[in-house]
Design goal:
GO molecular function, one term: nickel cation binding
Number of strands: 4
Number of helices: 4
EC number: 3.5.1.5
CATH topology: TIM Barrel
CATH class: Alpha Beta
Strand content: 15-25%
Number of domains: 1
Protein name: urease
Organism: uncultured prokaryote
Largest sheet: 4 strands, parallel
Distance between the termini: 51 Å
Helix content: 25-40%
Order of helices and strands: EHEHHEHE
Mean pLDDT: 87
Pathway: Nitrogen metabolism; urea degradation; CO(2) and NH(3) from urea (urease route): step 1/1
Radius of gyration: 18 Å
Shape: elongated
Structural class: alpha/beta
């Protein structure tokens, strides 16, 4: 009893994890975002979503069709544009290339993985 009015029942259906050295975030995870407008982040946060995976660069035809920014430059710009929001942002890069260097560029720019 450390907070009045708060009851947390721990029983046989509860699994306790050690949180030392970890970043633990409560909230929902949306794993398929087409970043068409910045208001999406605000709406997600208001609904309890705290982590978003996807991509795009705004109201562009490519963003409407896929969930990936077009290359390293736009990955970097999207990450910079979203730093003001208290949300876990996971951006994917374009994996449909014959250039290994193109993949490495996107990783260095912040891509967490690739979408084909």
């Amino acid at each position: 009893d450390i907070q009045p009015g708060v009851t947390i029942i721990i029983g046989p259906g509860t699994d306790v994890i050690a949180g030392e050295g970890k970043i633990l975030t409560a909230g929902g995870f949306d794993s398929h975002i087409h970043f068409i407008c910045p208001q999406q982040i605000e709406h997600a946060l208001m609904s309890g979503v705290t982590s978003m995976l996807g991509g795009g660069t705004g109201p562009a035809e490519g963003t409407k069709a896929t969930t990936i920014p077009p290359g390293a430059f736009w990955l970097d710009m999207m990450l910079r544009a979203t730093t003001q929001w208290p949300v876990n942002m996971v951006l994917l890069g374009k994996g449909n290339t014959v250039s290994a260097e193109g993949l490495w560029e996107q990783l260095r720019a912040g891509a967490a993985g690739f979408k084909l």
